[in-house]
Write a structure and sequence with these properties.
41% of the residues lie in helices and 10% in strands. The longest helix is centred in the first third of the chain and has 20 residues. It binds zinc ion (ZN). Zinc ion binds next to loops.
Length: 396
């Protein structure tokens, strides 16, 4: 056998061995990529993330899941007709990013300051919503153990309102699709800096989805919800929303400790069939939100813990306003899902120079004070444990 043949056979054997262990899907389509790069608050972020993941050779180790846009009927499964009609009007009539005519702004539908109108808005929404439906499909069809969709994770949008940079809520679409296909014990985990209000509220009356969100909670901080007493409603939904409010400056060690304790309690009380996790990167040290002090290590530890639960897992993006650090984080988490080690030196690729001056993957924590004291943590955990144990008593 020639050297080249030996290499090809070796690669095939490695691929087969990898697949025997864990198949990791990576959601992508050119249209999805195009539209996500237009998102006003994170313009070009999708490009940085995807290019860095490719530069490390990780896409070749994943099963590529072709993202299919949601159709009109699917869009109406969550959003109201009025909201969709307004968005379609913006889509049809708005010709340039700079055209902020009054007819394209609506306070009622949340289209304005945080979520500015943009051309082709409806198309953008169908591609984003469809991307996480495609992720759910890959799990339903048992094509993957873990599916990654860094283009998704827009957790704030409501049925009839854009909110917090989110025009649509792909996570709700993802979970609805899982529910429609026989899953009725879904664990939703939200690691974004902000409370996952849009997802929680969509499933607040049901015991088929348990939502747990770890986030900054402070008077005046968006969206203003997510205290420990925010537990869900009704005979079925009460205690199926678990909220872990945290303070500025929280470190990896502190965050991971709380995360593992809460998840461990939840797992004991709730045997989930599938896990959907939003991995917003705005809790990273150096993010313009300037709140938490997390690094890649903290997020990776959380992901490793979720993987050990050994259930189908869908990983989604979300916030992340230091665009390069977001690319560093999600590339590292892709490697973590694949059980691959990455070189700390960023490989040469089309965006290489943007990573100056360090050209490294690593993110250092900042020197800020951790306001999440031990006493505060004990108090929060006591309340959270109480909520989980109440749920245990009402378990179906
Ligand atoms: Zn956020």
């Amino acid at each position: 056998m020639s050297d080249q043949m030996v290499e090809i056979v070796d690669n095939l054997i490695t691929k087969v061995c990898d697949n025997v262990n864990t198949v990791v899907g990576y959601v992508f389509s050119k249209q999805l990529y195009y539209h996500c790069n237009r998102l006003p608050k994170v313009k070009g972020r999708a490009f940085l993330v995807h290019e860095l993941i490719k530069a490390y050779g990780l896409t070749t180790k994943c099963l590529i899941i072709e993202s299919v846009a949601a159709n009109d009927l699917q869009m109406r499964c969550f959003h109201s007709e009025d909201y969709l009609n307004f968005v379609k009007h913006v889509s049809d009539k708005m010709l340039s990013d700079e055209d902020f005519s009054e007819e394209f702004i609506s306070e009622d539908f949340g289209i304005g300051y945080d979520c500015p109108p943009i051309p082709q808005l409806y198309q953008l929404m169908t591609h984003i919503a469809g991307s996480s439906i495609s992720a759910a499909d890959a799990i339903i069809q048992k094509r993957c153990d873990i599916v990654i969709n860094w283009f998704g994770g827009w957790h704030h949008s409501h049925r009839d309102e854009a909110s917090g940079y989110c025009y649509t809520n792909d996570i709700v679409f993802c979970i609805l699709h899982l529910l429609d296909n026989g899953f009725d014990k879904i664990l939703y985990v939200d690691l974004d800096l902000h409370h996952g209000d849009g997802v929680q509220n969509s499933f607040i009356h049901t015991n088929k989805v348990l939502s747990v969100s770890f986030h900054k909670y402070e008077i005046g901080f968006f969206p203003g919800t997510g205290d420990t007493n925010d537990v869900g409603f009704g005979s079925k939904g009460k205690y199926y929303s678990i909220n872990v409010p945290l303070k500025d400056g929280i470190t990896d060690e502190c965050y991971v400790n709380i995360f593992k304790k809460v998840l461990n309690k939840i797992q004991t009380a709730y045997k989930s069939q599938v896990i959907v996790c939003q991995m917003g990167a705005d809790g990273l040290a150096g993010d313009p939100m300037n709140a938490f002090n997390l690094t890649i290590d903290g997020y990776s530890e959380c992901l490793k813990y979720l993987i050990t639960i050994n259930k189908p897992l869908i990983l989604l993006g979300g916030g992340g306003y230091h665009l390069l650090n977001t690319a560093r984080l999600w590339t590292s988490l892709t490697a973590c899902a694949l059980n691959e080690q990455l070189d700390n030196d960023i490989p040469d690729h089309s965006c290489f120079l943007a990573y100056r001056p360090t050209y490294e993957l690593n993110i250092e924590p900042s020197l800020r004070h951790n306001l999440t004291s031990n006493e505060y943590i004990d108090n929060i955990l006591e309340n959270v444990y109480k909520n989980i144990s109440f749920k245990k008593r009402t378990i179906n």
